[in-house]
Amino acid sequence: MSGPVPVAVIVASTRDERIGGRVAEWFVGEARARGDLALDVIDLVNPEWRAEPVAFVSYGGLAGGLRVVEQLREVVVELHMVSLRDGVALPFAGRSFREGTAPHDPEGMIADGVRITLDRLVWWSRALAGARAANPYDG
Questions:
Q1: E-assigned strands of 33-93?
Q2: Domains within the chain, CATH numbers bracketed
């Protein structure tokens, strides 16, 4: 698979008082800056996403939304999606996003997590595209 890898960003929390939209906008901006991803923000999962990789960006309190991610991993497996081990967790994101459009990341740990997650997402996208081309997935 050559060219940009198609990636869907699914926003699970859309209530006005939540920061899901801001988190999604920030992450999409980070991903678009790479140049090797074609992003689409969706709110619907359908059969076209079967045998496709999924990575999670979560936010919340102390755990950074990781408990929800663990539950979502079980859901995406049932949708025949491939859940990546790597992801981005933003603990206390409400504080980080209060002052701007990107999280406070003085040591670059979040940026490193974004880079690793997107690198792995590209790798899995290309690997699974090759597998689907060689043997179409009928799930």
A1: 37-42, 53-54, 57-60, 82-83, 88-91
A2: 5-134 (3.40.50.360)
